[in-house]
Write a structure and sequence with these properties.
With about 900 residues, this protein is an alpha+beta fold. The protein has six domains: about 1-55, Complement Module, domain 1 (Ribbon), CATH 2.10.70; about 75-170, PAS domain (Beta-Lactamase), CATH 3.30.450; about 180-300, PAS domain (Beta-Lactamase, 2-Layer Sandwich); about 305-475, Beta-Lactamase (2-Layer Sandwich), CATH 3.30.450.40; about 500-645, GAF domain (Beta-Lactamase, 2-Layer Sandwich), CATH 3.30.450.40; about 730-890, Heat Shock Protein 90 (2-Layer Sandwich), CATH 3.30.565.10. The protein has 24 helices and 32 strands. The strands form seven sheets. It has a six-stranded antiparallel β-sheet with strand order 16-15-14-19-18-17, with helices on both faces. The chain has a six-stranded antiparallel β-sheet with strand order 22-21-20-25-24-23, sandwiched between helices. Strands 5-4-8-7-6 form a five-stranded antiparallel β-sheet.
Length: about 900
């Protein structure tokens, strides 16, 4: 009613009427107000039942709500725009993907966000959509920040109230494209991997069609992909008929969903060469788990199988070598060791026969010392270097093999007629030098020895070489120990011997004992004569002692001069012919110099029937050093002993001389004291007498006595001074050519008065045949004054003294002159004659005569005569008297 009053025209409203059942029925009423009289109005109601329409509208609204909810929650961006591209509506995902708000997007057009499809193309696309089904295309959207990202667009058209609109669903495919790119890359990598894989890769479907056959599979079977892809499994079965059961078993296992690994078969390549192949297979299933295809992996394991076989073979070899080494270690005999080695080598290599040659020490030749299943007569066979297979191996130092030895043109003459087929040989080496050869012979097989078999044989050769080296070292150690023991025993024996002659006996005995020699000798050089002397010899050479004749010293002199030993001197050599005949009684002789302090002091020789080996030569050299040192030491000791003896004797003699000199000095002091005291006492006595009164008539006599005593003192002092000068060699003798007779006449005249006073006849006997001699005149006057004075003094009254000169020829043919002073006085005792010329000595005759004297006169005479190069002979006897003869060489001026 109120609405009718307010509105003048008709209006509509919705009302609900309750129906008879009590329910409410929606209706639409059109109310028209009709004015009436008196201000009254009438309302006309036209009522329409709109229940069905309401229900339809409600359904539409619910559908729209659900659509909106779906659009808002969609993962894709949803855009609604008209045919001009103006954006009408978007969902939240569109806002988030582009970075805009809803209001910002509703102000934009499609061209503002589309970065890949031009606007003209877009419009053409939109127009085409009105006539057809929705389309999907790839595009790109631009964000608010300007970045562009790929999208997949699903575009469709529909009408709203008669107007066409475009609905676009845009999905960001950045991650999908990355995944697709990664997938493509992975696929390409897998394809490349399959193509480059070292193993064969195959794929075939359940119909047997081959889908994949990579290059490795082609190489394994020598079957191209084109050839097998056409026929598939059927072709593989045809090409590998022997392996069809194995292939079928693998396929059945895989079809049951069970992968198969490493099923090994021996395949035959298209060229007929067999290869070992390991097959692995697995099913390829779809997402539903249904097997769609089978994939197989094929690996050529031929080399691996060979390597495994080689490893097994090497293991067997190592086991045999180890067993051999243990067996070798338990043995000490070299031939037993070599026998074990050749037996094991033949067994391991499957050979029937074998042997080991060793290089001989005395010549470049091989000798078969160990055999395995060879005829016994072959033991001891000798081959020259380069002869036969073993000789060639010894010559080249490399292992070699011959497939048919019997027909081989290089076979050795020793094996002519032997039926040998395959023969292999390897060298035994020590320090790079071939010392032997090991060989094996096989008459069963005809194929050549493989390189690996030669390598195995070389291992046994190396083991044999090591065994020989160990044996050599052991023998060397034993030999060195024996040498050391021998040298020690010889040295001990030499020390115990002491004397040189004893040492020589020890040396020769030990040389024969240690070397099994039949003869031994020592040769030394005489230091005085430089002759080669054999002081001692033993055995067969025992008679060969003394000085060697000049013709028999050649090789001896060479060895001693060069200081180098000579080994194995035998018949037919130049050195042999120069040996003394007695030495040549033995066929092999060694001469070794004895060296001490780099000086050859001699040599020793050893002779026997067999040549000397290296070990024996080393022993001889070592013994030579010991013997040389011992002999040198003995020489030094003997020299020292001799020197000590000489020195001791000299010291004893010096001591005797000193004792005698001391005695003579005491006598001299006593005599001098007496000689001085007597005249001095007489002088003092007669001086006192001269002073006494009443003795004037005796004064001339006293004065004469005083003069005599003064002269006596003067002579004594002069003798002492002369002796002192002679001792100090202060008296220089000026020589002149003078005759002895005038000198003797002057001396006789000087002593004649004294002789007459004593009643002694003094006679001079000149000799005109005596030539002049060079002499110091005054010193010789003093000599003969002393001799004549002594002769007069010791001659009894009535006796005589004679002076005379002499001349004679010496044993060397030189002229000698002399002067003799003879007297007939008492003879000199024989025991005093050797001491007459010693200083201070006075013999028994002098002491008993009462004549004064100092014992210096004769000593002075001897000193002067000695300095003239002469000497004094003394002869004294009861019958002939006493004579002193002074002998002088004629001499030369000066």
């Amino acid at each position: 009613t109120d609405l009718c009053q307010e509105r003048r025209g008709p209006f509509q409203l919705e009302v609900r009427f309750r129906d008879p059942s009590g329910g409410l029925t929606p209706t639409r009423a059109t109310v028209s107000r009709i004015p009436g009289d008196g201000g009254q109005a009438t309302a006309i109601w036209m009522v329409e039942n709109v229940a069905e329409r309401k229900r339809a509208e409600e359904a539409v609204r619910e559908s729209e709500r659900r659509f909106r909810l779906l659009v808002e929650r969609a993962a894709d961006a949803v855009f609604l725009h008209d045919m001009q591209g103006a954006i009408v509506d978007v969902n939240q995902q569109a806002c988030e993907s582009l970075g805009y708000t809803r209001d910002e997007l509703l102000k934009l057009a499609v061209r503002d966000i589309e970065a890949a499809v031009p606007e003209d193309a877009q419009r053409g696309l939109w127009r085409s959509l009105t006539a057809g089904a929705p389309q999907t295309l790839q595009g790109a959207h631009r964000r608010k920040d300007g970045s562009v990202f790929p999208v997949e667009l699903r575009i469709g058209s529909f009408d709203i109230d008669g107007r066409p609109y475009i609905l676009s669903l845009a999905r960001d495919v950045t991650e999908r494209q990355r995944a697709e790119a990664a997938l493509r890359e992975t696929t390409e990598m897998l394809q490349a991997l399959v193509q480059a894989a070292p193993v064969g890769v195959t794929v075939f479907d359940l119909d047997g069609r081959m889908r994949l056959w990579n290059p490795a599979a082609e190489r394994i079977f020598r079957i191209s992909a084109e050839r097998i892809l056409d026929r598939g499994l059927e072709a593989l079965r045809d090409l590998q008929p022997d392996n069809v059961p194995a292939f079928s078993e693998v396929i059945q296992e895989v079809l049951q969903g069970r992968p198969v690994s490493d099923v090994e078969v021996v395949a035959v390549r298209s060229d007929g060469v067999p290869v070992d192949v390991a097959i692995s297979a697995a099913p390829l299933s779809d997402s539903g788990g249904r097997i769609r295809a089978l994939m197989g992996v094929l690996e050529d394991v031929t080399e691996r199988k060979r390597a495994e076989a080689a490893i097994q073979r090497h293991s067997r070899e190592l086991a045999v070598l180890y067993e051999t080494s243990l067996d070798v270690a338990r043995r000490s005999n070299v031939l037993d060791i070599l026998q074990v080695i050749v037996d094991r080598a033949a067994r391991l290599m499957g050979a029937e026969m074998g042997g080991i040659y060793l290089m001989r020490d005395d010549r470049p030749e091989l000798e078969l010392v160990v055999i395995h299943n060879l005829a016994p007569e072959y033991r001891g066979v000798r081959l020259a270097l380069g002869e036969g297979l073993s000789g060639k191996v010894a010559q080249t130092g490399e292992p070699q093999a011959v497939t048919n030895y019997a027909a081989w043109e290089g076979r050795a003459a020793a094996y002519e007629g032997a039926v040998f087929r395959r023969v292999a040989a390897a060298p035994l080496k020590r320090a790079g030098k071939v010392i032997g050869v090991i060989n094996v012979t096989d008459n069963m097989r005809t194929d050549p020895f493989e390189a690996d078999e030669l390598r195995v044989l070389q291992l046994f050769a190396d083991q044999a070489a090591i065994a020989l080296e160990n044996a050599r070292l052991f023998e060397e150690t034993r030999r060195r120990a024996a040498h050391l023991e021998a040298i020690t025993s010889v040295a001990a024996a030499l020390r115990a011997a002491g004397r040189r002659d004893q040492m020589m006996s020890v040396i020769l005995a030990r040389l024969q004992e240690l070397l099994g020699a039949h003869g031994a000798l020592l040769a030394l050089e005489d230091r005085a004569t430089r002759e080669i002397v054999v002081p001692q010899a033993s055995g067969t050479w025992s008679a060969m002692t003394g000085v060697l004749p000049p013709g028999a010293t050649g090789i001896f002199a060479d060895v001693m001069a060069g200081g180098r030993p000579t080994w194995d001197v035998g018949p037919g050599t130049e050195a042999w012919e120069s040996l003394p005949p007695s030495v040549r009684e033995l066929p092999v002789v060694a001469l070794v110099p004895l060296v001490e302090q780099e000086k050859v002091v001699g040599l020793f020789g050893v002779g026997r029937q067999e040549p000397f080996g290296d070990a024996e030569r080393s022993l001889l050299l070592a013994l030579a050093e010991v013997v040389g040192s011992a002999l040198h030491r003995a020489d030094v000791l003997e020299t020292l002993e001799q020197r000590v003896q000489v020195r001791t004797r000299e010291l004893a003699e010096a001591n005797e001389r000193l004792t005698e000199l001391d005695r003579l000095k005491s006598n001299f002091v006593s005599n001098v004291s007496h000689e001085l005291r007597t005249p001095i006492t007489n002088v003092l006595l007669y001086l006192d007498l001269l002073q006494q009164p009443g003795r004037e008539e005796r004064r001339p006599t006293y004065l004469q006595v005083l003069r005599h005593e003064s002269e006596r003192l003067g002579h004594l002092i002069e003798d002492l001074l002369t002796l002192s000068r002679v001792d100090q060699e202060a008296v220089k003798i000026s020589r002149e050519l003078r005759s002895l007779d005038p000198l003797l006449g002057e001396v006789a005249a000087a002593h004649r008065a004294r002789a007459q006073a004593k009643g002694v006849a003094l006679t001079l006997e000149p000799n005109p045949e005596v030539p002049p001699a060079w002499m110091g005149y005054q010193p010789m006057i003093q000599v003969f004054n002393n001799l004549v004075a002594n002769a007069v003094a010791y001659t009894q009254p009535g006796g005589s003294v004679t002076l005379g000169s002499l001349v004679r020829r010496s044993a060397q043919g030189e002229t000698e002159v002399g002067a003799r002073v003879w007297n007939g006085g008492p003879p000199i005792p024989p025991e005093d004659i050797p001491q007459l010329f010693q200083r201070f000595f006075r013999g028994r005759t002098g002491r008993e005569s009462g004549e004064p004297g100092t014992g210096l006169g004769l000593s002075i005479c001897k000193e002067i005569v000695d300095r003239h190069g002469g000497w004094i002979d003394v002869v004294s006897s009861e019958d002939q008297g006493t004579s002193f003869t002074v002998w002088l060489p004629i001499g030369v001026e000066g």
